From TrEMBL:
Pfam family, one: MazG
Catalyses which reaction(s): ATP + H2O = AMP + diphosphate + H(+)
Similarity remark: Belongs to the nucleoside triphosphate pyrophosphohydrolase family.
UniProt keywords, alphabetically: Hydrolase
InterPro entries reported in the protein's UniProt record: MazG-like_dom (IPR004518), NTP-PPase_MazG-like_C (IPR048011), NTP-PPase_MazG-like_N (IPR048015), NTP_PyrPHydrolase_MazG (IPR011551)
Organism of this sequence: Phaeovulum veldkampii DSM 11550
Protein name as annotated: Nucleoside triphosphate pyrophosphohydrolase
Keyword check for Hydrolase: yes
């Protein structure tokens, strides 16, 4: 006779209770999966970040058939952390759900409360940040709570946005561009005269100001770089295809030949557009 747990685990319509039970069973010290039992918050965190990026990748590629699976993988990460927390007596999945539900209600008084919905998306964003600041507390630092685990460019923009809200920001784009020129010159000087550690620091300073320029232009630097990565991959693939048509590989050609093929691929893309 099958147990209620087995029935739930094998019920395709079991929903969230089924997924929670599967994770509980995987982590069972006596009968679970040895790999799953050994994991901790620290070892699972990189997978959580990876799964979030895979969701973003599916969206970027408009791979809608893949998106449910990627979202499921990300949901599993939440369930995994909640199960480990419950085992440690910290909190459980219901606490996670209640917390996010309460937060959404509190941060949308124009939907769930008495505030008017007659305001712009920009004003709603400002109100959202005001509520978040109140939640952090009056004594919290301006930059507190910006997650360390974010992609570096994304975190740079968030830090700059926080600083800008208290007036620490260049008022015009021209000043940001001037700073880019200054930081680029310092990077060249570091290359010629300073240690590798100093060069890395100067390179970081340049990237930080580039992220600031993206913010002033209303550009998501992560999305912009993903687009450029995709463009590079596409055009380099065109180089490889052109050489393969001649029975050659990149290692059989010169930089000048590959550069000419790159420019041909670029012209073809622009012509197709």
């Amino acid at each position: 006779m099958t147990s209620p747990s087995d029935q739930l685990v094998h019920d395709p319509d079991g929903g969230m209770p089924r997924l929670l039970e599967i994770m509980r069973r995987l982590r069972d010290p006596a009968t679970g999966c040895p790999w799953d039992i050994e994991q901790s918050f620290a070892t699972i965190a990189p997978y959580t970040i990876e799964e979030a990026h895979e969701v973003a990748d599916a969206i970027e590629r408009a791979a809608w058939a893949e998106l449910p699976g990627e979202l499921g993988d990300l949901l599993l990460q939440v369930v995994y952390h909640a199960q480990m927390a419950e085992e440690a007596g910290l909190f459980d999945f219901a606490t996670v759900v209640r917390g996010i539900a309460d937060k959404m209600v509190a941060r949308h008084p124009h939907v769930f409360g008495s505030e008017s919905r007659e305001k712009s998306a920009l004003q709603q964003t400002a109100d959202w940040e005001r509520i978040k600041a109140a939640e952090r507390g009056a004594r919290a630092g301006v930059l507190e709570g910006v997650a360390l685990g974010l992609p570096a460019l994304t975190r740079a923009v968030k830090l700059q946005n926080r600083a800008a809200r208290v007036g620490f920001d260049w008022p015009v784009i021209g000043q940001v561009v001037d700073k880019i020129v200054e930081e680029a010159a310092e990077l060249v000087e570091a290359r010629d005269h300073l240690a590798p550690e100093a060069m890395a620091e100067e390179f970081g300073d340049l990237l930080f100001v580039m992220a600031n320029l993206a913010r002033h232009l209303g550009v998501d630097p992560e999305a912009a770089l993903r687009g450029t990565n995709a463009k590079f991959t596409r055009r380099f693939g065109a180089i490889e295809a052109a050489l393969a048509a001649e029975g050659r590989k990149c290692t059989d050609s010169t930089l000048e030949e590959m550069d000419a093929l790159w420019n041909a691929a670029k012209r073809a893309e622009r012509g197709a557009g």
